[in-house]
Design goal:
5-stranded parallel β-sheet; binds thiamine diphosphate; two-stranded antiparallel sheet; 335 residues
Length: 335
């Protein structure tokens, strides 16, 4: 199929649209495989799936450059994949193997890839915001032209760390893009049950930070909004906030019986999920065929098979190395 003629500026060229779709499918299938491996006992500990929210990581990442820094939460598989960390070390990290991106010490919640300025994978709600502010301060002091993108859930806005980070970032005009992934529930708590004011962009405004809300199910809308916001940040305008309205299709984690929301609500959101809706639009634009989809699915399947094989052949970390890189005084002392 030929490139789409540039008649409508809102329609991306076919190759770009295919790439965005491929990236979202890649994240979706990786996580479906992770869920399967978890049930098979290959992956242990916590596992929080991003299924339903893929458009945010993929869309936002389009606005970021290699020199930019990224901080994410424990629901970060999609961000690491969209950033370009190879799938093998990520799968091995889920397995807890030494060839994992964090030597198997972090697991699902602690993906890390310093070579791509991907600084977590962090388990503490709101904790990433303060780290992002620190990274941005370091970049500013060293006069590096970088933006730090900080992804967090709407549950984090209830944390003091959110308000302290907003305040300092605005006060010091730090180059941070705060990206709130508002999937409406913090574990089992609906946003309306924990916040007296649910407009997250308005909370940023209270600190003088420009904010924008966007449909987080629409990869192109997220990309466009992230580009607008990063441009402002890069131009020295200080921090910006993007609230991406989204939904997670799976439970909070593998242990959640989901008693706080109805199945009908979940099914309704799935009908306009980020992948299915983008596929539909691509078909309308006549830039997606069934063969294209089969080719994407086959390539992703092969990549996942290889990543699983990489994880399977990985070694466990030797016991003697257990305390290596553990930063505490006297860890080996007798006292
Ligand atoms: C400081 C802190 N408090 C509580 C928890 C337990 N906890 C883990 S996830 C979570 C909900 C967070 O929801 P949200 O920020 O909306 O992110 P989502 O899981 O929806 O992506 C909570 C309360 C934690 N990890 N850290």
């Amino acid at each position: 199929m030929k490139e789409q003629p540039a008649t409508d500026s809102r329609i991306p060229p076919r190759s770009r649209a295919l790439d965005l779709l491929r990236q979202m499918i890649r994240i979706r299938r990786f996580e479906e495989k992770a869920a399967e491996l978890y049930s098979a006992g290959k992956i242990r500990g916590f596992l929080h799936l991003y299924i339903g929210e893929e458009a945010i990581a993929v869309g936002a990442m389009q606005a970021l450059r290699p020199e930019d820094a990224i901080v994410a939460t424990y629901r970060e598989h999609g961000h690491a994949l969209a950033r370009g960390t190879p799938m093998g070390p990520l799968m091995a990290e889920l397995y807890g193997k030494a060839n994992g991106c964090s030597r198997g010490r972090g697991g699902s919640m602690h993906f890390f890839d310093a070579s791509r300025r991907f600084y977590g994978g962090l388990a503490i709600v709101g904790g990433g915001l303060a780290i992002a502010v620190g990274l941005a301060l370091a970049d500013q002091l060293r006069k590096r032209p970088s933006v730090t993108a900080c992804f967090f859930g709407e549950g984090a806005v209830a944390e003091g760390a959110f308000h302290e980070s907003m305040n300092l970032a605005a006060l010091w005009k730090l180059p941070v893009l705060f990206i709130c992934e508002n999937n409406l529930y913090a574990m089992g708590t609906a946003l309306v049950r924990s916040e007296s004011m649910t407009d997250i962009a308005a909370k940023a405004a209270a600190y003088g930070i420009p904010g924008e809300a966007v449909d987080g199910m629409d990869v192109l809308a997220v990309e466009a909004a992230a580009k607008r916001a990063t441009e402002r940040v890069r131009a020295g305008g200080g921090p910006s906030l993007l609230e991406c309205k989204t939904y997670r299709f799976r439970a909070h984690s593998m242990y959640d019986p989901e008693l706080y929301r109805s199945k009908t609500e979940v099914e309704e959101w799935k009908t306009h999920g980020p992948i299915v809706s983008f596929e539909g639009r691509m078909r309308e634009w006549k830039c997606l065929t069934s063969e294209d989809l089969s080719a994407i699915e086959a390539a992703v399947r092969a990549e996942i098979d290889e990543a699983v094989a990489f994880a399977e052949r990985g070694e466990w970390e030797p016991l003697e190395e257990l305390t290596k890189d553990v930063y505490t005084a006297n860890v080996n002392s007798e006292t």
